[in-house]
Write a structure and sequence with these properties.
Length: about 100
């Protein structure tokens, strides 16, 4: 899901919302260890802010020292289905162009 908008009485900043949903179902006959990685947007300027919300909360942030990469790691039982949500809000100056967003 992607949403864009502006904030402020005289729009000085743009806002973009990006959400990812992962649904994982085990078709194995025995429990398996699951590792789900999410590479989210990372601000490279102090004029850009990125707020992230995750459900459930990832066990690891900056996975393997990679900035912006989070990891959910847990056991998945046979036939079990798990959902993972990553929701980002990116704010940046109206006159700026942000490269690399979907």
């Amino acid at each position: 899901m992607n949403r864009s908008g502006s904030s402020g009485l005289i729009s000085q900043r743009n806002e973009r919302q990006i959400a990812d949903l992962y649904t994982v179902t085990s078709r194995h006959k025995v429990p398996v260890e699951l590792l789900v990685l999410e590479a989210g947007p990372v601000a490279v300027s102090d004029q850009i802010s990125v707020d992230a919300a995750f459900d459930p909360k990832p066990k690891l942030t900056d996975w393997e020292e990679k900035r912006g990469v989070v990891a959910w790691q847990q056991s998945l039982a046979p036939g079990e289905t798990l959902k993972f949500v990553a929701d980002y809000t990116i704010r940046y100056p109206k006159e700026a162009a942000v490269i690399g967003l979907p």
